[in-house]
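Good morning,

Both structures are done.
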Amino acid sequence: RGCQRSEPAPQVHRVVERLPVDGAGHGLEQLFDDSRAGLFSLVQFSASLVGVLASSALVSTKGFKPAIVLGLAMLGIGFALLNAPTFSLALLASGLYGLGYGFATPSTNLWVAESYGDRRASALNVANLAWGVGAISSSPLAMLTVRKAQVTTFLYVVAIICLALAASLLRLPFGKAPH
């Protein structure tokens, strides 16, 4: 007896019913099986690991600012392209998002820790609270945007916020690179 494909939860069926149909009349559920969906996680988390490793080198040579700005820019571009018309481009977007997350998260945490001296623990708690609020709110926001058929708009808004934040950080002075 071979492996059987698991059936998604009922709420997934409701979401898939609302997804667009391609030019040949195939619904996305026919084009997007479990193995292809799993590639998004693989690509995102692999790229995130690469981003974490690369951010260490960038922070030690150029400082926090380039790593944080690059990470936010990649997050924004990844968000903007995530609802791409092709599977390959959406997969690339997932990789950009993961790479950006890998650059932005540890660099931001290190910058906060070094910038706040004796208050670093409380400052890191606030920074991590902000990441956590974003992570927790993303699920209900995603559900809302799917129900309202506004996924692309939502992704573009988040992308614009990330890119605007990256652009504004370019103008701010940062501390020197750690030794």
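Second structure follows.
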Amino acid sequence: RVTEIGPPNGDEVLVQEDGESKNKKQEKGGEFEKIMEALSRRFAYEMAKPTTDCPTCPLISKNGKAYLIINFHANGDVATGGDDIKEIMNRSAGKMYVDVENLYIQHFESNLTRTYRRVGGAFQLKQADMVLEQGEEDTPDGKLIVVRSTVVNYQYSIFILGETRGIRSWTYGDYRYVP
């Protein structure tokens, strides 16, 4: 079993292999940092502002817990290199509810803001809305943050075949815990 512990300065990682400690240099620009950098280039974020629907925004209380609401929208047409997922991300906006106590995204929703077209308009993705819910789950190893549910509503058309609408959903019950 290998356990990695990152120090506050982020330069070294203490690795424990079968109780034996070893130090190794941490690689600069790890996967998490790369993902965060890509997301910060692709999206603009702002705290939700108070409205008549949400007078206490950006902070709300739900089920006895405090959440911070953060809105996001795509930063225009950031280069995608032809990647379809990135093209769709360039057309997305939504909001996140961050659990203030445990610092995780409890609720995430994203909507397609404009149609995505391919092959000269023969394929058109008109709707790609996603809602993701996370929560704490008791496991033999303690509490874990897990994806409780994911729901995707979609609508697309293909020139010859016509229009298709659908909903795909997954829940935590669809998976099993593997220690």
